[in-house]
Here is the input.
Amino acid sequence: MKLYTDKRIQYGVTALYPLAAFGLLYFGEYLLSSWIAPVCAFLLFCCLWRGMRQVLWSNLLLWVAALPVWLISLESDGREQILANLVFIIMMFLPALLIPQLLIVDIRNRLLLKLSQRREYPVS
Here is the structure.
């Protein structure tokens, strides 16, 4: 399975996460009427990322792309409000999104490692 070993695929997955987040927000009027689409995207990317480094890079790219877009797209009152609440937004982002992503990827990697070790040494 080349999904986790091919670097180009992993770079694509890393770059696709911010694009998917912006797509969900752009089409949010249609997709975000329930929590199903964001949760499915969240779990899909947790399955696609190879490790912690990809999770961190994807989220860094998301923030690098999102902050200027927020600041450009909002009026001056909205900009001031975003900048005033940026620390709170980041503090809520960590426990609500980043830490669960890291935990899910870590648990998945540990389970895959145990499964591969079990396949190498079958118990009779």
Remarks:
- The chain has one domain: 7-120.
- The chain is about 85% helix and 0% strand.
- The first helix runs from residue 7 to 26.
